[in-house]
Amino acid sequence: MEIIKLRDEYIKLGQALKAVGLVGSGVDAKYVIEEALVKVNGRTELQRGKKLRAGDIVEYDGKTIKIEE
């Protein structure tokens, strides 16, 4: 499990995927999100700009990201 420590109130979903290296660019993030391959808190998420806050869990490609303060 990857952990992202928030510097601000939130991080956007596309940025989180890039930050841990699950996608190479914002364009790659856009495609995997649009193709319904990403889940946030167990639900498929289709918004690249979805705001992730402390406690959120992201799943993609068999990997998990946890958002912490």
From TrEMBL:
Keywords noted in UniProt: RNA-binding
Q: Mind telling me which Gene3D superfamilies this protein's record contains?
A: RNA-binding S4 domain
Membrane-crossing segments per the record? none
Q: Which InterPro entries match?
A: S4_RNA-bd_sf
Q: A Pfam family name for this chain? A: S4_2
rRNA processing found in the keyword field: no
Q: Which GO terms describe its molecular function?
A: RNA binding
Q: Which CDD domains does the record associate with it?
A: S4
Question: What's the name of the protein?
Answer: Ribosome-associated protein
| Naturally occurring in which organism (per UniProt) | Hungatella effluvii
Organism classification, top ranks? Bacteria, Bacillati, Bacillota, Clostridia, Lachnospirales
